[in-house]
């Protein structure tokens, strides 16, 4: 048993997932790092106190609970390795990670280019808090590619990406957007929650800052709220400074759970991917379904980009139904036995949710005659999930069914 420093570990993602952050030699041989709960950290001498104050923003020391404990550092080290980043920072939610990253690189008078298919609450953050702080946001079409250059202004400081898009799953040409932004001196920030660092590594495609809601696949068990940001050292110091000025600190218990989630991420994702695709293909063949929104399907408009840049697909995707009576849809959804209805995703269980993307688009239009549903393929037996959906469609049809648009 050796405790190798994380940099000395072999590079394969599965090996990093299995071993990074563990230091059994420092912990009585216990495999997992313990949960260190702390506010006060004691210093033996004035010299040590002085040293800690000088290095408080440098990640290397534990100085106060809000700066993180060794449990936080174990989680952050692991994510940084997976992303190919110098360093990562744990934050109390995915939205906190996004907000801290935006605040770190924007100030009054700056302009932000935000993808139109961004996770809804980020749109609210831009329209309310950032506007109040004198930061202007323009929303752009995810299909923009290198034409993003034409949207940039001298004061554009951040270009923000998310792919595939929230609720509607449009892909983005990430390298093209990142290169155009870099050429104009803007920082790119990408929400990579859907793919996780296993299926897409934004920093290797030219993005400057990657965030993930660890609440989803990284945690994987629907029992924690956390976000994580990864970047090079200089940018991460900037984000960490902003986050700490706002008082954000991820809880040690959640860091422990998120690190435990990482240990099985790879095997869980394989299953989410397989079941998600099985459901998507089955749904494609259903007469009630107008369109399946899943970039790993060859028919999807984003398929070429997904295939070029991503190493896999996770279990979250959408469908557009043909028009139907609201009561028929309610009867379908209310009666689901395995698919739960609720926010969030990325846990072990399957979910289904009616969504309204139309209300949160401004640079693009979401025009469908029928309702849109978001599905999360969990780890259940796919046959049982298909049977649950099949019974759901039977209820929809008993309530009048769909009309051809
Ligand atoms: C794509 C995406 N990013 C970020 C978030 C925010 O994460 P959290 O709920 O941990 O704040 C979510 C939550 O649903 C999400 O779907």
Automatic annotation (TrEMBL):
Keywords, alphabetical: Lyase, Pyridoxal phosphate
Disordered, as annotated region: 1-25
Source taxon at top rank: Bacteria
Pathway(s) this gene product operates in, as recorded in its UniProt entry: Amino-acid biosynthesis; L-methionine biosynthesis via de novo pathway; L-homocysteine from L-cystathionine: step 1/1
Catalytic activity: L,L-cystathionine + H2O = L-homocysteine + pyruvate + NH4(+); an S-substituted L-cysteine + H2O = a thiol + pyruvate + NH4(+)
A Gene Ontology BP annotation from the UniProt entry: L-cysteine catabolic process to pyruvate
SUPFAM superfamilies, sorted: PLP-dependent transferases
Cofactor field: pyridoxal 5'-phosphate
Signal peptide (residue range): none
Molecular function GO labels: cysteine-S-conjugate beta-lyase activity; pyridoxal phosphate binding
Modified residues (N6-(pyridoxal phosphate)lysine): 216
Gene3D superfamilies the record matches: Aspartate Aminotransferase, domain 1, Type I PLP-dependent aspartate aminotransferase-like (Major domain)
Classification via NCBIfam families: cysta_beta_ly_B
Family as reported in the entry's similarity comment: Belongs to the trans-sulfuration enzymes family.
Protein name: Cystathionine beta-lyase
Organism: Hypericibacter adhaerens
